[in-house]
Amino acid sequence: MPRILPRGEIEGLDHTSIPRLRLPNPHSIFKERGQRLLHLAADHPAQTYLQLMAELSAAQHQTLQTLSSPVIDEQHIAHALQHGMPPLLSSAWQRDPNWQKIMATLLQTLASSNTVPTAAQEIAAQLLHQLKHEPEVIEALADAVLTQQLARGDSGKAAFIMAALQVYWTHLASALSHEHIPLNTPFGVCPCCGSLPVSSIVRVGGSADGCRYLSCPRCSVEWHVVRVTCTHCESTDGIFYHGIEDGPAGIKAESCDSCHTYRKIFYQKDQLHVDPVADDLASLALDMLMGEAGYERSSGNPLLWQEP
Ligand SMILES: [Zn+2]
Ligand SMILES: [Zn+2]
Predict the structure, then answer these.
(1) What range does the record give for the signal peptide (predicted)?
(2) Are 158 and 246 members of one domain?
């Protein structure tokens, strides 16, 4: 009879064979997200919004290609490793003021596109004006986005600010290697930047085949977490999977009866070009179903501002 391994041993085995991290490729991550959003936008009830987010992702891609390799602060990394803390933790990481240049490039790219709707171009122009004349206001807006404390009147700017912050953090994370990221960081948050994950994907191919990875909406790092485990409270009891009847294959919500939350899980074998942010955004019908069933989302989508 096969021996059933206790949980600790299963994780021990995982560390020997399964890559614990998937670091972002700066040359493809936002480009592929933009393409995926365009694909998902076809015949979708939220078509206009998904198309705009596709434009935003394409602008993120273009912006990221203009940046030179970041310098890694080895001393900071060593300190984080010593304390088992995410090296790019936003609350402990002083943003380089140059991130505002990233934002300016991103907004200029959007503002110069003739396929971006007027309302979005107006927001981009307004933010560009603030970047030039009131950079301290932009810093405060970025802090408010990161701490989920944005004033209601500013919510239309959220996706644009988050998009710039995503480029900034993804650029930094793409320069790191596995050895820069501690093995045992706190459960449930990105081991690289401490953000809550947006969704998870069961990958196909190579040594990650069949393994589930959580995705960071900020620095784009993915990290392995065993399946049938609540990604919010780590419970392994009362985990259920929900899908839309007759809906697309490979899209489920993983719910937990211990903490009454859910997070989506996508199966790459059914959706080869799945993207953790795009597919989450395009499956809002599943969020409605989960809300009706009495479960709360454990964290939001970076491109859709929701009141905390
Ligand atoms: Zn992260
Ligand atoms: Zn839970």
Answers:
(1) none
(2) no
What's the CA-to-centroid distance between 308 and ligand 2, angstroms? 19
CA of 218 to the centre of ligand 1 (A): 5
Q: DSSP string of 85-149?
A: --TT-TTTS---TTHHHHHHHHHHHHHT-TTS-HHHHHHHHHHHHHHHH-HHHHHHHHHHHHTT-
Among candidate residues 142, 162, 178, the one where a domain is terminated: 178
The average confidence (pLDDT) of the chain is 92
Encoded amino acid at 154, one letter: D
Q: Determine the distance separating the centroid of ligand 1 and the alpha carbon of 228, expressed in angstroms.
A: 22
Q: How far is ligand 1, taken at its centre, from the CA of residue 192, in Å? A: 5
CA separation for the pair 272, 203 (Å, rounded): 9
Q: How many domains does the chain contain in total? A: 2
Hunting for tokens 């697309």 — which residue is that?
A: 248
**Judgement on whether residues 118 and 161 belong to the same structural domain of the protein:** yes
Helices (H), ranges, 203-283? 278-281
3 state SS of 273 = coil
Domain containing residue 50: CATH number: 3.90.1670.10
Domain residue limits at 292: 186-297
* Residue at which a domain ends, from 152, 178, 204: 178
Distance 292 CA to ligand 2 centre (A): 18
Read off the pLDDT of residues 107-158 as tens digits, 9 standing for 90 and up. Answer: 999 988 888 989 899 999 999 999 999 999 999 999 999 988 999 889 999 9
